[in-house]
Amino acid sequence: MISVIDYDAGNLRSVEKALCYLGADARITRDRDAILSSNRVVLPGVGSFGDAMEKLRQYGLVNTIYDIVDRRIPLLGICLGLQLLYETSEESPGVGGLGILRGDIVKIPPADGRKIPHMGWNSLRIRQGAKLFRDMPAEPYVYFVHSYYLRAKDQEEVAATAEYGVTIHASVERGRIWACQFHPEKSGAVGLRILENFIND
Fold first, then answer.
1. pLDDT digits (tens, 9 = 90+) for 139-158
2. Of residues 16, 79, 91, 180, which has the active-site annotation?
3. 20 catalytic, yes or no?
4. Contact 95, 87 (CB under 8 A)
5. Choosing from 16, 157, 185, 196, which is the catalytic residue?
6. What CATH superfamily is the domain 2-200?
7. Residue 82: pLDDT band by 50, 70, 90 thresholds?
8. What one-character-per-residue DSSP string does 62-120 give?
9. 165: helix, strand or coil
10. Residues 133, 194: contact at Cβ < 8 Å?
């Protein structure tokens, strides 16, 4: 079973639907026992960093997520779910993230007529050997919706980047943790392949 962590964030249903389309037994839940007995876990999300951390604490999910990592249950963060894995975000000064990975979430700088939020399709530059992107085209297009982006401290964890006036660390992987700033569940056949790689790793 794949648990999709429920903390009242947006986009949970579309992630669940995409996983089920691929044949996975995916369920939205905040039940600790169900999550920790899963084969895989997804932390999706659309919304505010500070509000999301407050909800994770309110539902007792922070320690559950730390236990997922400690038990090496494969974990995939999507969009806000990626950002929450890190230490801080300019969106919510003074609010600490989960701090599982090292880096900061910063605002995309407005310049050259770029629209913020960054919303739409962008190509990725994939690091050779990145597991989430097995059997992918060289520069696949994926769908983004975000105003803040990751600056990872550990460059070797960056699996893919995108350019939008700045270099966005668009996907990371470390051990049994993967995360994407973009939305694989909204990225057509490419996104489904990424989710399939996560399911089958």
1. 999 999 999 999 999 999 99
2. 79
3. no
4. no
5. 185
6. Class I glutamine amidotransferase (GATase) domain (3.40.50.880)
7. very high
8. HHHHHHHHHTT--EEEETHHHHHTSSEETTSTT-----SS-EEEEEPPP-TT--SSEEE
9. coil
10. yes
If one counts every other C-beta atom within 10 angstroms of the C-beta of residue 186, the result is 18
Task: Respond yes or no: is residue 157 known to be catalytic.
Answer: no
Active site residue 118: no
What's the pLDDT tens digit per position in 2-36?
999 999 988 899 999 999 999 999 999 999 999 99
pLDDT of residue 110: 83
DSSP assignments along 3-68, one per residue = EEE-SS-TTHHHHHHHHHHTT--EEEE--HHHHHT-SEEEE---S-HHHHHHHHHHTTHHHHHHHH
Structure tokens at 165: 């006036």
CA atoms within 13 A on the CB side of 162: 24
Torsion (CA) 179, 185, 191, 196 in degrees, nearest 10: 80
Cβ–Cβ < 8 Å for 1, 41: no
- Domain ranges across the chain: 2-200
Instruction: Find all residues with CB under 8 Å of 58, minimum gap 6, and list them.
Output: none
Q: What's the token pair of residue 171?
A: 């996907």
Strand 148-152 and strand 2-5: the pairing is unpaired
